[in-house]
Amino acid sequence: MPEKNAYPVQLIQPDGRRVHDRVHAPLVADIDAERLRAIYTDMVIARRIDTEATALQRQGQLGLWPPLLGQEAAQIGSAHALRTDDYVFCSYREAGVAWCRGVPPEQMTTLWRGVAHSCWDADAVKMTNPAIVVGAQGLHATGYAFAAHLEGAEIATIAYFGDGATSQGDIAEALGFAASWSAPVVFFCQNNHWAISAPVRVQSATPIAQRAVGYGIPGIQVDGNDALAVLAVTRQALIRARSGGGPSFIEAITYRMGPHTTADDPTRYRTAAELELWQRRDPIDRIRRLLEREELWDSDFEQEVAVRSDEVAARLRSATLNMPDPQVSDLFDHVYATPHRLLAEERREYTAYLEGAQS
After folding, report:
1. Coil, helix or strand for 57?
2. Where does 188-298 have alpha helices with state H?
3. Which stretches does DSSP call E strand in 21-165?
4. What is the pLDDT of residues 170-181, one digit of tens each?
5. 49, 68 contact by CB (below 8 A)
6. 127 and 337 in contact (C-beta within 8 Å)?
7. pLDDT for 327
8. Residue 152 zone, left/alpha/beta (φ > 0; ψ -120 to 50; rest)
9. 20 to 30 A Cα–Cα from 340, which one of 142, 246, 274, 285?
10. Are 65 and 85 contacting, i.e. CB atoms less than 8 angstroms apart?
């Protein structure tokens, strides 16, 4: 992987035409018609999950939801590069990655509905739960990768984070440790241009990928709205990690078309013209145009994708609406891996308090 590239890697232009990149196109030469359709399907499902969860929050059924609208190619393209034994360390926006890792839609909203501390069994899908502490997952991914390396496991980890997280000390520490110890970790920055209301220009005066070079880590920019290009550079980084080459840094340049979370109003800090510009670069439209150009698109396939995405959304909605409220005592469950004396004492005290309040 080169230390820097003059332009973001691109394999599909916005109009669906292929870019014949001699370095990166061979990395996705095995993506045939069936696999290309599967990538498109996963992108549509990821968007459908997102729009349904956003609607549920607007209807008062979720306390919060972090939309991924516009970032489907970055998430699905990178997720399709992973092996089942690789481990994903996410932020709070990677519902698309979770879908690709096998997380059932019924488990995607428990945290956001406030009925549990987490959503899914991390070990079952090799993906951590949503991380609210910005940038912390970079340290976790690095530590796990280094430990796996010491044990001789030929796996890689990937840490997802946004452009704003690159200003956090946790990411800086993770980059430094990973570089010093050649940890097999891929740092995947989804540069969606806005860290809540702060534009990316205040996060870095240079391309974010160049920050990695200062640590001795190769950094590369990729068109984050191009699923094939994202797949190619992520595969490249994972191969490097698994073969002992050490960490890599990917900056996927994309755009958050929705709010930072459902508690945010993006119209207060960005223009309608900017949003319109990026809507014309919609990642799902781009891969659909590629399918049309290569005669892989027909009405039957379109209907099949629509039906499947609606089914997933219905499962998510039904599960969310029917989630049972937890018992108050559940607050003390799963805090420690083994029984803990102080926690048991706190449970008894709180139980006594509740009983006294009800009497």
Report:
1. helix
2. 208-213, 227-242, 272-279, 283-293
3. 87-89, 157-162
4. 999 999 999 999
5. no
6. no
7. 86
8. left
9. 142
10. no
Q: Give the active site residues.
A: 256, 260, 269
Task: Please give the C-alpha separations between residue 129 and each of 89, 156, 222, 320, in angstroms, as whole numbers.
Answer: 8, 18, 26, 17
4 has a pLDDT exceeding 60: no
Strands (E), the chain: 87-89, 157-162, 185-191, 194-195, 198-199, 219-223, 248-253
Convert the pLDDT of each residue in 34-45 to its tens digit.
999 999 999 999
Count of C-beta atoms within a 10 Å radius of residue 266: 17
Residue 215 sits at φ, ψ, to 5 deg, of: -95, 0
- Measured between alpha carbons, how far is 64 from 57 in angstroms, rounded to an integer? 6
Sequence-distant (≥ 6) Cβ neighbours of residue 52 within 8 angstroms: 313, 316, 317
Q: Is the pLDDT of residue 135 over 80?
A: yes
CB 260 within 8 A of CB 92: no
pLDDT-derived band of residue 6, with 50, 70 and 90 as boundaries? low
Contact between 36 and 73 (Cβ < 8 Å): no
Higher pLDDT, 26 or 330: 26
